[in-house]
Amino acid sequence: MEKENVIVTHELTKRFGDFTAVDNVSFAVQKGEIFGFIGANGAGKTTAMRMLCGLSLPSSGTATVAGFDVYKQNEQIKKHIGYMSQKFSLYEDLTIRENIRFYAGIYGLRDERIREKTDLLLQQLHMKGAERTLVRALPLGWKQKLAFSIAIVHDPAIVFLDEPTGGVDPITRREFWSLIYEAAGRGITIFVTTHYMDEAEYCNRVSIMVDGRIDALDSPANLMQQYASASMDGVFLQLARKAKRSGD
User: Domain ABC transporter: where (predicted)?
Assistant: First the structure.
C-alpha cells in the first residue's frame, strides 16, 4: 500500500529583493520517511525549511505540511511538527527535567502526560539520576540527544532537523542517527538538512540543493549509481562542478 505524503511542494520559491534563495523547488515526502535536504552552506536549505515550518511565507509556489497550507494555516503547521536546530534550543539555566517539562507544556501536553513523558525520556536517554543537572553543564552529545527527544516529545507528524549534528564527534553523530531511526520507526517523518555528505547515506531519499535549486532527488544508492560514484561526496561534487560550469 502506498504511503501518504505529509509534505508536498510545487515550484516553491523565496526571494529577497533581487536574490532568489529558493528557486522553484518541487518534491513530496512520505509518512515515516527520512528525507535528507543536502547542500553546501548557503544553498537555500534553511530558507526552504523555514517556509515549511510556517516561519516564513513563500514568494510563490505552493506547499502543504501535515495537510496544512503554508500560506493560510501556518499556526496549525506549528502544532503538528517538531523542530531542532544546530543551536539545540535548550534553556541552559534550566535542569534536564525542567527543560523537558517546559517544552512538553509548550507543545500542549497535559500534566499527567508530561510526567509520563518526562520519566520515559529520562530512562531512554539514560539520564536518570542526572535530571537535576543544569543543561549548561552537559556534554555536547547529551545536549544534542536531549534536544531531539524534546522536539518529538509531543509525537508530531514531522520533525524538522536543521544541521542537527554540527560540531559533534562521529561517534555521537552515529548515536544521534540511531534516535532518528527509532523515531521514523514510530511513524514520525524526519526532514533533515545537513552538509555532511556521509549522513546523506543514512536517509531513505535525499534532495541535493545547489544555488537554491534541487539538482537531484533519489535514494542515495540510486544517485551513486547514476553518477558512478562510490559516495555521496562524489555525487555532490559532480553536481557542484556542473552548476559552476553552467554559471560561467
Answer: 7-236
Q: Is 41 exposed, middle or buried (0-12, 13-18, 19+ CB in 10 A)?
A: exposed
What residues contact residue 57 under an 8 Å CB cut-off, 6+ apart? 51, 70, 71, 74
Q: Side chain identity at 80, as an amino acid letter?
A: H
Quick: pLDDT tens for 1-38.
567 999 999 999 999 999 999 999 999 999 999 999 98
Residue 183: CB partners within 8 Å, gap ≥ 6? Answer: 152, 159, 190
Domains of the chain, first to last: 5-247 (3.40.50.300)
Strand 213-218 relative to strand 205-210, pairing: antiparallel
Residues in the chain: 248
Question: Which residues are within 8 A (CB) of 83 and not within 5 positions of it... i.e. 6 or more apart?
Answer: 53, 89, 151, 159, 160, 162
pTM to 2 decimals? Answer: 0.91
247: left (phi over 0), alpha (psi -120 to 50) or beta: alpha
